[in-house]
Amino acid sequence: MGSCEDNCFEIVTNSPGETVALGAKIGENLVGGEIICLVGNLGSGKTHLIKGIAEGLGVDQDSEVNSPTFVLVNEYTGPEVRLDIYHIDAYRLDSVAEFEMLGFDDLCYESSVVLIEWADKVESALESIYPIHIELSHISENQRKIQLKNITSKLLSALKNR
Questions:
Q1: d(Cα 32, Cα 113) in Å, to the nearest integer?
Q2: What is the pLDDT of residues 140-154, one digit of tens each?
Q3: How far apart are CA 93 and CA 85, in angstroms?
Q4: Please, which residues have CB within 8 angstroms of residue 75's CB and are 6 or more apart in sequence?
Q5: What single string gives the DSSP state of each residue in 30-45?
Q6: Strand, coil or helix: what is 107?
Q7: Alpha-carbon Rg of the chain, whole angstroms?
Q8: Rounded to an integer, what distance in angstroms lies between the CA atom of residue 47 and that of residue 127?
Q9: How deeply is 49 buried, as exposed, middle or buried, from its count of CB atoms within 10 A (0-12, 13-18, 19+)?
Q10: How far is 136 from 157, CA to CA, in rounded Å?
Q11: N- to C-terminal Cα separation, the chain
Q12: What is the pLDDT of residues 90-134, one digit of tens each?
């Protein structure tokens, strides 16, 4: 992971629950129109973080939030959900063209949040939009280093004061 400078936040979580709680804080502070790219090795906590983000946006804790590995895109809704949430898993995509055929552009609008797991596989399709970038890495069995880049000053402030 590179250095963490402007519009960047770095934290170590010590359990899956802490990773979910961090995600919830992120979700609570999203306003819509965000595209969030998540990268990290298998088991690094991407799905736990997404569960938290969805929870922070109002998705019921008992809802099934999981990686859409075979359907490729999950949409999370509910009466309390304040923004449309699309969760894309790029792991099984073979090309950027496949990613674009998912209708990615149609998912990006003012009242949506698009979460992309394995975003490094489709990086070239995302270059022009400058998304929020979250990198997760293993420190130990339960500890994860999580670095967020290109975040708003509002989100940075909320994370520092959590």
A1: 6
A2: 988 999 999 999 888
A3: 20
A4: 84, 85, 86, 87
A5: --S-EEEEEE--TTSS
A6: helix
A7: 15
A8: 23
A9: buried
A10: 20
A11: 23
A12: 988 888 888 888 888 889 999 999 999 999 999 888 878 889 999
